[in-house]
Amino acid sequence: MQVRPYELIIVGAGPAGSATALFLLHHRPDLQGRILLLERRSFPREKFCAGALGGRADRLLEEIGVRIEVPSVAIDGLMLSLPDGRVERTPGGIGRVIRRREFDHALALVARDRGAELLEGHGVRTFTVDKGGVEVSTGRERFRGRALVGADGVGSTVRRALGLPFGRLKASVVEVDTERVSGDPPDHLLHFDVTDRTYRGYAWDFPTPLKGRVMVSRGLYVLSYDGSTVPEVTDLLAERLRAQGLCIQDYRVKRMAERGIELHRPTARPRILLVGEAAGIDPITGEGIAQAVQYGSVAGRYLAERLRTGRLSFRDWRLRLASSDLGKDLAFRRLLAQGCYRWGRHPFERLFLDRPEALEFGAAIFAGRVRPWRKWASKILPGQSPAS
Ligand SMILES: Cc1cc2nc3c(=O)[nH]c(=O)nc-3n(C[C@H](O)[C@H](O)[C@H](O)COP(=O)(O)OP(=O)(O)OC[C@H]3O[C@@H](n4cnc5c(N)ncnc54)[C@H](O)[C@@H]3O)c2cc1C
Fold first, then answer.
1. CA distance linking residue 259 with residue 152, whole number of Å
2. Cα–Cα distance, 169 to 223 (Å, whole number)
3. What is the pLDDT of residue 226?
4. What DSSP element (H or E) covers 134?
5. CB of 13 closer than 6 A to ligand 1?
6. Which of 72, 153, 304, 349 could form a disulfide with 96 if both were Cys (CB 3.0 to 4.6 A apart)?
7. pLDDT (tens digit, 9 = 90+) per residue, 89-125?
8. Is 177 in the pocket of ligand 1 (CB under 6 A)?
């Protein structure tokens, strides 16, 4: 079998894989034609996801001249239902909701147009690392690269092959797309509902652009924290839908897992590093699309430099990640998950009710508008005047 040589092989053409290729090519346009993006499935492919895309992803992509034009619903704010009340903040323009079938396809095509070689229907089965590089087999073909990026999502083959643990922050997620019902929030808001205390997580109602209309993605994100057992999420969603006057049997139920990052665990080996959900995402909300793009931005810059210098041990990838905006954001969210689920949710819920600015802060994180932090601290922290 002929072995085809590349500078870098990226496994998985979801947002993390395509973004890594795009940012790398931005920093190293000389690598055109020498980056291989291997995707197991064929575009357009479906990815179970509610499609809420934080504005920071579009902002980052715009920095390298990329705008993904797909049907979207613009999002202006957040609504949070708590056991003791409801909070809403609408700062405006915080992101949009897309369909992954369209978004991922369009992003992969831009990566291809900018010089990555995209091979669809090529699932990586095995790989070996030697002194000179990495050799990958898809069963049908073999490819050789100087380095490899695992961007192959929650069940990452690359991660498994490296023997890296999958960690304890696993979530069960279930969703359906339905018509709107009375009582739904307006189309420009993402609604998070944490009123049900029988599980660690939340229910959502997000607008979603489907077949030329705005429908509603409804779902449940339930986190298993410290190995806790997760209740049957489909039953929980059925119950919630019933309360909304909907019957789960009338809809296609889409169920999948998600995995939160554990920043202290390794996400690289010599010549191989992980990005996106293969590395781990936000455990508190399960948000992962914008983070996948952020991973691409950090990895693209890192790889540009490492492929140039030949320092491919990737020993400091975890450190590079931790010191990036993405790493700080993930660390903050990890801490929040710990706070809510180990120490108790009540103080956090009280904070949102007493200081709705905290929800605006959440919206700013989603949008990528958190700087300066001091401004938010003075708005939210106890002892400060909300008006200051
Ligand atoms: C129900 C649900 C709702 C969600 N809602 C949201 C939301 O509203 N907003 C948000 O930000 N996040 C959401 N998420 C999380 C988000 O979908 C993921 O975190 C995000 O897709 C991660 O991107 P990624 O590129 O790392 O992985 P993926 O998007 O999973 O992409 C991985 C790619 O790798 C390919 N692949 C896998 N194995 C191989 C292999 N061996 N060889 C080659 N290719 C391979 C896959 O086919 C896929 O195309 C949701 C998740 C779920 C399950």
1. 13
2. 7
3. 67
4. strand 134-137
5. yes
6. 72
7. 999 999 999 999 999 999 999 999 999 999 999 999 9
8. no
